[in-house]
Each structure stands twice: as C-alpha cells, then as structure tokens.
Design a protein that fits this description.
Elements lengths: L2 E3 L6 E3 L2 H32 L1 H13 L9 H11 L1 H5 L7 H19 L3 H20 L1 H6 L1 H6 L11 H18 L5 E2 L3 E4 L2 E4 L7 H18 L3 H32 L5 H4 L2 H19 L30 H22 L21 E3 L15 E9 L2 E10 L24 E2 L3 E5 L4 E10 L2 E11 L2 E3 L2 H13 L6 E10 L7 H22 L4
Antiparallel strand pairs: 1-2, 3-4, 4-5, 6-7, 7-8, 8-14, 9-11, 10-11, 11-12, 12-13, 12-14
Length: about 525
C-alpha cells in the first residue's frame, strides 16, 4: 500500500484506500441496478405477450415432442450462473443496438402474427427477450453469454414441418438394411410392409423427440466441456446424426422383432420404452466419446471477450438501465397494440356462404356422400360438401373458405389436411403433384384406402384469384395481401372418386368432372369472396 508523509505533519495519509473501495463497489452497484431493471423488463415483456407465452406453454404441455422446453430456461440460467465471476469483471452498459433489435424483432412478431405463423411468433418473442438483455447489459455481456442466450431459442416449439423428411429418412435407412439382409420389404413413405406384417411410421416415430432431446442435453454438455465453437458445433452435429441413425436402427429392430415373433411380441404394440432405452445408451456413448476432446478450461476460467468501443454503447450518464429497459419495453408493446387496432371484429358484413355448383354435363347431384370420409379443415368461415353421379361413377366435392385468418383458424396449419386427426382407419400415400392437361391447373394427388374401399383425392388451393397446389404459396400470398390491407381470403377445394384395386381407375372420372365443373367451382369460390 502506498503512503505519503505530509511535510510539517506527523500524519500519514493513505492515498489509495478510498479510491480502491469506490472502484470495487461501483461495478456491484451497476450490476444490481442492471439486474433489477432487466428482470422487470423481461417480466413486462412476458406480460405484454402473454397470449404468445400461453400458446407456447400449451404446446409444451400437450405435445410430448416438446416436453424438453420446460427445462430450457433453468438450464440457461445454470449456464449463466457458471459465468457469474466473468460477468462480475465486466461493467454493464445499456446499448442502443439492443433497443433497436427489440423493435425489429417486435416487427417480425407482428408479421408472423398477421400470417398466422405460430413458430415465427414464438421465435420472435425469444429474440425480443435476448435483445432486451442486450439493451440493458450491453454488447460485451451478450457476447460473453452468447451460448446460453442462443440456447433459449429452444423454448420455441419447432420442427413439425420436418415430420415427412424424418419419416422418410428413418424408413429408407431401415429398408436399406433389410434389403442388404435379403428381406423382402416395401415402403411407400408411411407404411413399411414385410411378409407377415405392416408398420406405419407415424410422427411419433419420426425421431423428432430424440433429436430435440439430444440437442438440449448435448448443448449443455458441449458448453461445459468445450470452449471452442467448432468443437461445440461438431459435437451437436454428430449428436443429431447419431439420433437419426439411432431412430432408423429402432425402426429396423422393431421390424425384425415383429417378423420373428409373427407380430405377437409385446414390443410390437408398446415400443416407446425400447426407443428411450436405445436413446439413453446412445447418449452415454456419445458423451463418453466426447470426453476425449474436452478443453481444460472450466467455464468460469475462460477469457473475457475483448472490449470494443462502439457508438451504440451508451454511457450511463446518457442512458440509464431504467431508461433502456423502459424504452425497449415500450417499443415492444407497440406491436400488440397495433394488432389489436387492426384486428377488431367486423360488423355488418353478410355471412360467407359456399353454394355447391349446379348440375352440368351429365353430372347430377345425389342426396348424400357415398363414403364416410371427408377432409379436415377446422376454422373455416364456410364449407360445402356435395356429391355428384356421372356416367363414369360418383364424385365427391369438398370446399372450405377462410377469411380473417388467425391462430387456430387458418387454412394452412399442421392440424388441417386430408387425414382426419386421430382416424387410423384410413391409410394415405404421400402427396404427388400433377398438372392436368387441358385444365391449366396443378393439383396434389393422394390415394386413401380403408379396407376394400379406395379413394383418389385431388386437392388445390384458391388465394387472391389464383389456383395453386402449394400451401407455402397460400401462406405467403395471404400474408403479403394482409400487410397491404387487401385481406387474406383463401379456400381449399378437394374432389375425390372411388376405386377398387388400381387407383388409376378413378382418374378418368375426376378428369371429366373437372373439365365440366371447374368453371362453376371457380364461380362458387369467387361468389363467397364477394368478387375479390
């Protein structure tokens, strides 16, 4: 400790004690203030966006593929806790860039909400929370916590769109091994058939649950074990690849058990425990192999990110922690207020009505559908179900019209489609697109079968006066139209005809029906849209 004697005095003054004490206390005061306002800001953000929070929580609760989401926030908090000493060595500074990011991601939430893109809403909310951390604590703290903050994006339940891809991967890998073994097997994209049995690879068997679980566990393991980013990425990529192979192995193993037990083994009916047992072994093996490349530094001993001077890092005398949190929260709250202003219920409008096309060209209406089947499109403003009889056989017509689409009442979503949810009586082939000559229209074709009855189904969409087979086009066109204030009217049209053995038997009847009735179907939809 440095001392200095004042001339002419016996007093010895300690020059450095008080300044050192002030320097030590100042960062603590800064962090206490920053932490308080950050917690208040996050709480306010979650309150403002409570409908989105509740929608996420419902998916976590009722969809088992996303049960891991309940552990994401505690695990992220644990990773932040491991960095507590590194954070204490930094001085938090409010960031204008973070405030701007809150505003920007609020805008993406607004666009996703208008387009009824639920995963977009969820990801945008998480991004706003991360940006709020950036706004209050500053760039350097966010760079230090980049991995835990990025980990929070696993709070958003995503991946349902990968079901067809994952099912295809699992089925094709299992079939390849069975072919190498000389086992006769057929796979049509959903059903895997062997000599003495049949397996349906459902969404629950796609492996998404295993992939999300290994990403969650593997992310925490890689963060605590590796300090280099390329090692973390390599470990997570290897874990996902292992999960894909493990799921294919599970499908192959179940097929083999079914074959050799003549489909009577208990695992044939209840194979969920087998899947998790294989998954647990896989995780232990991956983690044991991963230990060989562990970095020596503990999380708390890793070097601090270098300090970079930027204009966006606001000095405390200009922008306080309270100011940053309040301003960011005010900007975020503006988007839900805008939504509530433009989504007020319409009054005085006549109800939407779909009227089945009148008979034409030898097609005569019959009193009821000959088959106990119809598509599933919940949330429609109007629907029509009608049946016709012609020289080539009966035809079924189904149409659903949507307007002012929102979550739970939008045309394009996972729950809507040709298969009825929970109905295992019908089996479906993968969708195939066909361009119908002479009709200038492209449709999606699916064959459905229940026992001896088969149905060939053709489907297309109408959106803003255009016909398309592509659901993504419907979503994007409706979103752009809604942003421009033109509404989001859209419809789905389905026609279907029966067959006995060969599905191509139904094609002539469907083709003839559309050649005769397509203009009247278009008129039906345009009338419901009010000529829009």
């Amino acid at each position: 400790m440095a001392t200095e004697a004042t001339p002419g005095s016996d007093k010895v003054q300690t020059q450095s004690a008080r300044p050192e004490s002030n320097r030590a206390a100042s960062p603590d005061r800064h962090w206490r203030s920053a932490a308080i306002w950050l917690v208040l800001g996050i709480a306010g953000l979650l309150t403002v966006y409570m409908p989105t929070v509740r929608a996420m929580e419902r998916i976590w609760t009722y969809n088992k593929s996303y049960a891991h989401c309940f552990f994401i926030a505690p695990l992220a908090a644990y990773m932040v806790w491991l960095n507590r000493h590194r954070l204490a060595a930094l001085t938090p500074r409010p960031s204008a860039w973070g405030i701007g990011a809150v505003l920007a991601f609020g805008g993406t939430w607004y666009v996703a909400h208008l387009g009824a893109i639920q995963v977009g809403e969820h990801l945008s909310l998480v991004a706003m929370a991360v940006s709020l951390v950036w706004a209050v604590l500053g760039e350097r703290a966010v760079r230090l916590l980049a991995f835990p903050l990025g980990f929070l994006f696993l709070l958003a339940p995503f991946g349902e769109g990968l079901f067809p891809i994952l099912i295809s991967i699992a089925g094709k890998l299992a079939v390849s091994v069975l072919h190498l073994m000389g086992t006769p097997v057929a796979f049509d994209g959903y059903y895997l058939r062997v000599e003495n049995g049949e397996w349906r690879i459902t969404e629950a068997c796609s492996g998404l649950r295993f992939i999300l679980s290994i990403i969650t566990v593997g992310a925490v393991y890689s963060y605590t074990s590796y300090s280099r980013w390329w090692k973390r990425v390599a470990f997570l990529a290897s874990s996902v690849l292992a999960a894909l192979l493990m799921n294919a192995f599970r499908v192959w193993l179940l097929v083999m058990i079914g074959m050799y037990s003549n489909m009577k083994a208990p695992l044939v009916r209840n194979h969920v425990p087998l899947g998790w047992a294989i998954f647990a072994v896989m995780v232990l093996v991956i983690f044991a192999l991963g230990r060989a490349w562990m970095d020596p530094e503990a999380v708390g001993e890793r070097p601090l990110p270098p300090e970079r001077k930027t204009r966006a890092e606001a000095p405390r005398r200009r922008v306080t922690f309270a100011g940053a949190a309040v301003l960011a929260l005010a900007l975020a709250a503006g988007w839900p207020l805008l939504v509530s202003a433009i989504e007020r219920p319409r009054t005085g409008e006549p109800p939407i009505v779909l009227v089945a096309p009148a008979d034409r060209g030898g097609w005569v209406s019959i009193p009821s559908m000959p088959w106990d089947w119809e598509p599933h499109y919940a949330g429609a403003k109007a629907t029509v179900r009608h049946a016709y009889q012609g020289a080539l056989g009966p035809i079924g017509l189904y149409a659903a019209f949507f307007r002012d689409q929102r979550q739970g009442a939008e045309l394009v979503r996972v729950e809507n489609g040709l298969p009825t949810p929970g109905d295992a009586a019908w089996r479906y082939t993968p969708e195939v697109r066909r361009t119908l000559s002479g009709l200038d229209i492209t449709i999606e074709e699916v064959d459905a079968r229940s026992g001896a009855l088969g149905l060939r189904v053709w489907r297309w969409y109408w959106v803003r006066g255009r016909n398309t087979p592509d659901a993504a086009t419907v979503k994007i066109t409706g979103l752009v139209s809604k942003l421009l204030g033109r509404g989001d009217d859209a419809a789905v049209i389905v026609v279907y005809a029966p067959f006995d053995q060969n599905a191509d038997q139904a094609t002539p009847a469907l083709t003839t029906f559309l050649k005769d009735m397509k203009p009247r179907i278009d008129q039906m939809v345009m009338a419901a849209a009010g000529g829009h």
